[in-house]
Design goal:
The protein is mainly α. The chain has two domains: 216 residues, no CATH class; 137 residues, no CATH class. It has 22 helices and no strands. The longest helix has 26 residues. The termini are far apart. The relative contact order is 0.16.
Length: 441
């Protein structure tokens, strides 16, 4: 039996995006300080879920919805959210964030704080293979640095989001890298090389831009703090660089933060530690609930053929235009559109992979190039999606508007421009093909 293909299945996602983004933009235009918190995303998505359940009423939609909520990727994100919230809350309560800020600002000039945050986040994401774990570990430090140096919090978080996107996109242990490579029949090594020539120019441009944006940073007077209180963060960063699983990293960091508080912070008790852990969980309630609901809604849309319809339309457009450039633009388009409708770059790649491979074979695009473009544009889209997990996590930690952060993820926009220029010119592709051919010979 063939899978369903239906444009109508996309209506629920359109309803959610219209309600959430439309309301947030409206209140922003009215000058409301908490524009995106007037209609909470988990409430805005409920009419969309009801519509999706009604559209699929003949196909046991509730089972599909519950299976989507319980998807392994969704559950992993929720666990990361909870542990990240607990670690951030405990670390702040014991003075760990203050200690890291003191050490950081004594090591580098204030105007290099933003490039420094980009580099740290990039290395962590490269080692961990996940932007989510990187944001959870580095974002609280970025907020402390921003406050001490007089930098806008959104700008500091944008540097972290940029670095996390850079590292995640290049990491050979990232789930998106593995999925893109396997689906396109390319080796991880070749895919990494293809990504490198796109990511490096964007990263260098981003570092220069962040240095320029940080020129006006004040030289802060930060009170000295015990460096031992920074030990949990340092251990988290080291474990991340070694490549330990993100859940283990955050769990170890949480336990060390609690131990440091009990031993080094006067009056900090096991009861206080327990309450701080729970407070961290509570702080991540909204994003955890939204991730569950989005997972269920995406499963309904996928089962009812909405995403298959999108893939078919893009493949049809590519088929009407011959040539390498047309094929690569189509691969980029299917990656972007699928991620917009799933808010999960791994799921987007799994859905778009087979269609992208067919387009690549028809238009003479190498497997490594196809895998690279799929991964790059999914990561770009995910990094600037206001309802995506990365921006929602950063916004939850900073209590900021997701839309405010979108324009601060400079690396994501620069990477998109670099990739589009690459498609237009074909220069990195040609250079890579010649190098691979020489090595094979």
């Amino acid at each position: 039996m063939s899978s369903p293909v239906s444009a109508r299945a996309l209506l629920p996602l359109g309803v959610f995006l219209s309600l959430f983004l439309g309301t947030g933009i409206w209140f922003t235009m009215q000058g409301h300080a908490d524009a995106f918190y007037q209609l909470r995303a988990p409430v805005a998505i409920l009419p969309a879920i009801a519509l999706a359940l009604w559209l699929g009423r003949r196909e046991r939609p509730l089972d599909t919805f519950l299976a989507g909520m319980g998807n392994g990727d969704v559950m992993l994100m929720c666990l990361i959210f909870l542990l990240a919230g607990a670690f951030a809350t405990v670390s702040k309560a014991i003075g760990g964030v203050d200690a890291v800020v003191w050490l950081t600002l004594n090591a580098i000039p204030a105007w290099l704080a933003l490039p420094g945050l980009f580099v740290v986040a990039g290395f962590v994401a490269l080692a961990m293979g996940t932007s989510m774990g990187t944001i959870a570990a580095v974002a609280p430090i970025a907020l402390g640095v921003a406050e001490a140096a007089g930098i806008a919090p959104a700008l500091a978080l944008g540097a972290v989001l940029s670095g996390a996107t850079f590292g995640d996109n290049l990491s050979v242990i990232s789930d998106t890298a593995i999925a893109a490579s396997r689906l396109q029949g390319a080796s991880l090594r070749d895919k990494f090389r293809a990504n490198f020539w796109l990511g490096l120019p964007a990263a260098l441009a981003c570092l220069v831009l962040l240095a320029l944006l940080g020129r006006g940073a004040a030289v802060p007077e930060v009170p000295a703090a015990s460096p031992w209180l920074a030990a949990p963060y340092l251990v988290v960063l080291v474990l991340a660089l070694i490549g330990i699983d993100v859940l283990v990293v955050l769990g170890v960091g949480l336990l060390l933060a609690g131990l440091a508080g009990l031993l080094l912070k006067g009056g900090y008790t096991p009861a206080a530690f327990s309450n701080d852990v729970y407070a961290g969980f509570e702080g991540m309630f909204e994003i955890t609930l939204l991730s569950l609901l989005i997972g269920g809604l995406a499963a309904l849309v996928r089962a009812q053929g909405g995403l298959a319809w999108l893939a078919a339309r893009i493949a049809a457009l590519a088929g009407g235009h011959a040539g390498r450039r047309s094929g690569e633009l189509s691969i980029a388009a299917i990656s972007i559109v699928t991620d917009v409708f799933t808010a999960n770059n791994t799921v987007a790649l799994l859905i778009a992979g087979s269609t992208a491979r067919g387009i690549a074979e028809k238009h003479g695009v190498s497997p490594a190039r196809s895998a690279s473009l799929l991964d790059v544009f999914a990561c770009v889209t995910q990094s600037v999606l206001p309802y995506g997990a990365q921006i929602l996590l950063a916004a939850s930690i900073a209590k900021a508007s997701p839309l405010e952060l979108v324009g601060q993820v400079h690396y994501g926009w620069l990477l998109a421009l670099t990739a589009l220029a690459s498609i237009a010119s074909g220069l990195p592709r040609a250079a890579l093909r010649q190098r691979l051919a020489a090595q094979a010979g």
